[in-house]
């Protein structure tokens, strides 16, 4: 394992040569790959440690990759890129509707998959070298955000329900530690895979967060700049 790896990615594919090449390509971006040769290996490795992303081949031999995806989505919100030989647009859209963050057509270069993985993780990770998001908790305006459970709780321990986009936007603002972020920066933080957020979407998300968190003072507007979180 590389000492400087800051992301862990699980590769689930029966194609051992492709998995090996992909693991090497990921390593060039300081991403540690863990190979699962089939569905059985995948379920075992999934319990081994937390992962930042799953690269899931539809062809897992004894079990269809989409069955694995469906089961995974019942318990986890782990980001997933599905690798599929089915190039039909409707089939790829169906994969996204099942909860995948992206659907990559096969055959495909391992280097391209690694580059897509690197860009995705940089966009949503908010991770410093040597630190894990599971250890990150932020306290602000009477609320606590826990990156491990992806929950936001008040002083009395009552949690509020946030959508993925709302949580990611709030997470980005807190990670900025009081510095204002532009709408474009927040759009990048909220976007996942093929789902790209617009700057107009950010205003809507901020409005919803303010309503759920108790007012405009929690997220402050900086005219001509963007938004910042009130951490007091």
Rg over CA atoms, rounded to whole Å, is 19 Å
C-alpha geometry: elongated
Q: Topology as H/E string?
A: EHEHEHEHEHEEEEHHHEE
Main beta-sheet strand count, sense and barrel state: 5 strands, parallel
Secondary structure topology:
Layout: E1 7-12, H1 16-27, E2 31-36, H2 39-46, E3 53-57, H3 65-73, E4 80-84, H4 89-97, E5 102-105, H5 110-125, E6 137-140, E7 143-146, E8 151-154, E9 159-160, H6 164-175, H7 183-190, H8 199-213, E10 219-222, E11 226-229
Parallel strand pairs: 1-2, 1-3, 3-4, 4-5
Antiparallel strand pairs: 6-7, 7-8, 8-9, 10-11
Helix pairs in contact: 1-5, 6-7, 6-8, 7-8
Domain Response regulatory: 8-121
Domain OmpR/PhoB-type: 135-231
DNA-binding region: 135-231
Short structural description:
38% of the residues lie in helices and 21% in strands. It has 232 residues and is an alpha/beta fold.
Task: Give an overview in words.
This protein has helices spanning 16-27, 39-46, 65-73, 89-97, 110-125, 164-175, 183-190, 199-213; strands at 7-12, 31-36, 53-57, 80-84, 102-105, 137-140, 143-146, 151-154, 159-160, 219-222, 226-229. The chain folds into 2 domains: 7-125, 3-Layer(aba) Sandwich (Rossmann fold); 133-229, Winged helix-like DNA-binding domain superfamily/Winged helix DNA-binding domain (Arc Repressor Mutant, subunit A). Strand 8 (151-154) and strand 9 form a beta hairpin. It has 232 residues and is of the alpha/beta class. It has a 5-stranded parallel sheet with strand order 2-1-3-4-5, sandwiched between helices. Strands 6-7-8-9 form a 4-stranded antiparallel sheet, with helices on one face. The protein is built from 8 helices and 11 strands. Helix 7 packs across helix 8 (199-213). 38% of the residues lie in helices and 21% in strands.
């Amino acid at each position: 394992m590389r000492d400087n790896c800051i992301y862990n990615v699980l590769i689930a594919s029966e194609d051992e040569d492709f998995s090996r090449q992909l693991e090497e390509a990921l390593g060039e971006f300081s991403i540690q790959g863990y190979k699962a040769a089939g569905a059985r290996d995948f379920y075992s490795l999934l319990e081994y440690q937390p992962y930042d992303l799953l690269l899931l081949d539809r062809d897992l031999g004894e079990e269809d990759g989409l069955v694995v995806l469906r089961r995974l989505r019942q318990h986890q919100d782990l980001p997933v890129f599905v690798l599929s030989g089915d190039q039909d647009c409707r089939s790829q859209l169906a994969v996204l509707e099942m909860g995948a963050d992206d659907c990559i057509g096969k055959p495909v270069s391992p280097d391209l998959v690694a580059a897509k993985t690197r860009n995705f993780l940089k966009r949503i990770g908010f991770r410093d070298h040597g630190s894990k998001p599971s250890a990150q908790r932020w306290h602000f305006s009477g609320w606590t955000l826990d990156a491990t459970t992806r929950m936001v709780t008040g002083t009395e321990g009552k949690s509020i329900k946030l959508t993925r986009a709302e949580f990611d936007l709030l997470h980005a603002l807190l990670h900025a530690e009081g510095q204002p972020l532009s709408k474009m920066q927040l759009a990048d933080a909220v976007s996942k895979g093929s789902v790209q957020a617009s700057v107009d979407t950010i205003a809507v998300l901020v409005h919803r967060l303010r309503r759920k968190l108790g007012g405009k003072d929690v997220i402050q507007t900086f005219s001509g700049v963007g938004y910042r979180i009130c951490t007091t």
